Amino acid sequence: MTIDTDTVPKQLFLAGEWRDASGGETFEVEDPSTGEAIATVADGTEDDARAAMDACAAVQGEWAAHPPRERGEILRRAWQAITEQVDELAVLMTLEMGKTVAESKAEITYASEFFRWFAEEAVRIEGRFAKAPSGVGRLITMKQPVGPCYAITPWNFPMAMGTRKIGPAVAAGCTMVIKPAQQTPLSMLALARILEEAGLPAGVLNVLTSSSSSEVSKPIISDPRLRKLTFTGSTEVGRKLVEQSAQGLLKTSMELGGNAPFLVFDDADVDAAVEGAVIAKMRNVGEACTAANRFHVAERVQDEFTTKLAERLGAMKVGRGTEEGVDVGPLIDDDQRGKVAELVDDAVAGGAQAVVGGTRIDGPGYFYAPTVLAHVTPGTRLLQEEIFGPVAPVVGFGSEDEAVAWANDTEYGLVSYVYTRDIKRAFRVCEALDTGMIGLNQGLVSNPAAPFGGVKASGFGREGGREGIEEYLETKYIAMAMD
Ligand code: NAP
């Protein structure tokens, strides 16, 4: 299959069929580097949402009984197909999301690795057998699929945020409705076609594209047949969804926002820290929940770090993600760019100095210059809010205690980055940081073999690693009479 915006499916994928929305409506998908529409996609309705749940419920029993090896092999074939089509899929992703084709390829490889990982996990779902402590009776546990799941994903990683949920659900034997973000539905539709071709039985995965996320989600979340809600997106929406899911007492996983601190101690390798900072800040144009949001740097190395980081960001070429030599694509839309600009302007008004960047870039598309802000005043808004753009604010610190206190001074708790060459300090600081993940002397933590997730307002639940499949399994305990 050659994938481009013409050949990718634009309909809903329900019960194994590609269908128009019940109301016949569509909505447009825009290229953020031009602001122009590139495709129209089926605009799912509440009736379609109910049909998606019907499809899940109809095959849940059969799917749970499907041999684990076969479930794993479907994922493995899908991994293979994604790998073979990575170039075409990357262009599609860049067109709808904006990041460079090289970054889209990296995301698609990462996304596909969740299928390979969970293909291997499908055959390792195990229970326990133990003699009761009294010696009388036996304790047996077995793991079973949770049941029908509803997955909601954001636009920033249009494929990986889906495969982190679909992979373990398929491996565990759960059926699923997935609702991609309205700004980036095409990558998910292309993925559904790949899974269909890989032999995923009809009804196991249902894709509901819609411009009315709240309306189509309500009938699904209130459906008594639904057993799990898994969400990746903002903390604000996550809170609402947890409230809605309380009625059905759903098992929930929430991968929410972040405000990652990046700590550079005075014993750090500053060049390595700058290298890590470029990755942690500029991956995905800064539109990542794991993006380093604020750089806390020991006063002794603060100027060196700031100058070197500014040189690196200032040299990055901004442009359309499909063009050769471009390092940084546009932001997702004008609202997001406006929010970034507002935060930077506020910081500059408060005394920060824009060493490089600090401005929007004119022309069609939603471009913003890579920016380094020096001497940002503690308490400034952009240190407290998720920036979601290519802006690196640098703040100096005096002591280790001060650095840790500032790092933890946020409602979020997804990831932190720590640069130090002192092994004891490394452990001390890692133990003291209130985040679900830490990049220790590296600027990237995402790995399908590792448990991704946060604490505090960054949510709960883990995706990837051995923990990832547990989110889609229930433990059943059998008390067996035996002398
Ligand atoms: P968002 O506004 O929360 O949207 C995420 C998804 O939720 C989209 O599919 C959206 O649909 C849907 N949605 C919005 N309101 C809803 C409602 N009332 N009911 C049901 N669904 C609803 O977040 P975003 O702006 O797309 O994504 C950025 C956020 O995601 C950031 O905060 C980022 O940190 C977070 N994120 C977290 C992780 C993680 O693993 N922790 C990973 C990536 C991103 P529409 O597209 O129709 O609005």
What would you say the CATH architecture of the largest domain is? 3-Layer(aba) Sandwich
Return residue spans where pLDDT drops below 50 for at least 5 consecutive residues. none
Record the strand order, biggest sheet. 14-17-18-13-12-19-20
Q: What share of residues is helical?
A: 25-40%
Could you explain how this protein is built, in words?
This protein is of the alpha/beta class and about 475 residues long. It has 2 domains: about 10-255 and about 460-480, Aldehyde Dehydrogenase, Chain A, domain 1, CATH 3.40.605.10; about 260-445, 3-Layer(aba) Sandwich (Aldehyde Dehydrogenase, Chain A, domain 2). It has 15 helices and 22 strands. It has helices at about 45-65, 70-85, 85-95, 100-120, 160-170, 185-195, 215-220, 235-245, 270-280, 300-315, 335-350, 380-385, 400-410, 425-430, 465-470; strands at about 10-15, 15-20, 25-30, 35-40, 130, 140-145, 150, 175-180, 205, 230, 250-255, 260-265, 290-300, 355, 360, 365-370, 370-375, 390-395, 415-420, 435-440, 460, 475-480. It has a 7-stranded mixed β-sheet, with helices on both faces. The chain has a 6-stranded mixed β-sheet with strand order 9-8-7-10-11-21, sandwiched between helices. A 3-stranded antiparallel β-sheet has the order 5-6-22, with no helix packed on it. The termini are far apart. The model has no long low-confidence stretch (mean pLDDT about 95). The site of NADP nicotinamide-adenine-dinucleotide phosphate (NAP) has 28 residues, from helix 7 and helix 8. NADP nicotinamide-adenine-dinucleotide phosphate binds near residues 181 and 233.
